[in-house]
Amino acid sequence: MIPVPLDRWFNDAKRTQELRAVLDSSTLQEAIATLKQIAGPTNNTVSTDPVANSHRFAWYAGYRDAFEDLHKLTSFKGDKQTYQPEEWNHITKPQ
Which residue among 11, 18, 23, 90 is least packed, with the fewest CB closer than 10 Å? Predict the structure, then answer.
């Protein structure tokens, strides 16, 4: 499936409502919570190697953000949608 530009996504109210209905499913919410719990770092999975830890934590953060980003696709924020994942803000917002 080919991704659509965000402005087209948010202009299709039916699509956002369908996604919201899927995400509101208690079965999906429970599955997401279970996957987050299983994938999360624990005392047993944290190692003494800082590089390995940083890779694991970065992967886990992206994993969690993916679920949050799906929820963001279901909400309208006015006529002009400027949604962009936070990890790209450093590129688009001068410091």
Answer: 90
